[in-house]
What we know:
Layout: H1 21-30, E1 61-62, E2 66-67, H2 70-78, H3 80-83, H4 96-106
Antiparallel strand pairs: 1-2
Helix pairs in contact: 1-4, 2-4
Residues 28, 31, 33, 35-37, 49-51, 53, 56, 59, 62-64, 77, 84, 87-90, 92, 102, 106 line the site of heme C.
Amino acid sequence: MLPLAACSGETREKQVRGGDAKVGKALVTQYQCGACHKIPDVRGADGKSGPQLDGFGKLSYIANGIPNQPDRLVAWLLDPPAMKPGTAMPAMSLTEQEARHMAAYLYTLRSRPK
Ligand code: HEC
């Protein structure tokens, strides 16, 4: 039987296979995602051309239309235009492993302050 916590879909933190949130945070800093995104506790991440990423872990959709699931998020990070033609977020030549770490980090962002 599954543990009860597994039933609480909405509030459960999503798991990314092979992703390490701590490494992901360092990568998000290194790749300067913050040039376009406001990201909590990433120094200097105060960009305005993309949506703020605080609370991202609670969103139902990535970029307003892609179901927010770990594998889709990894695919999004690897190649946004392939997932949403015409999007303003560019592909940044990440490896899949890097994208997995970043996805794990993004799912820890679960509070959206006003
Ligand atoms: C050149 C600016 C730019 C850079 C650099 C950039 N993004 Fe984005 N990002 C965007 C834009 C614009 C969107 C909105 C896309 C859309 O809705 O079509 C977006 C959307 C997203 C989303 C979905 C957010 C939501 O609320 O749905 C995530 C997650 C994301 N970016 C993560 C990252 C990460 C991680 C990096 C670094 C590897 C990064 N972005 C680098 C511009 C950028």
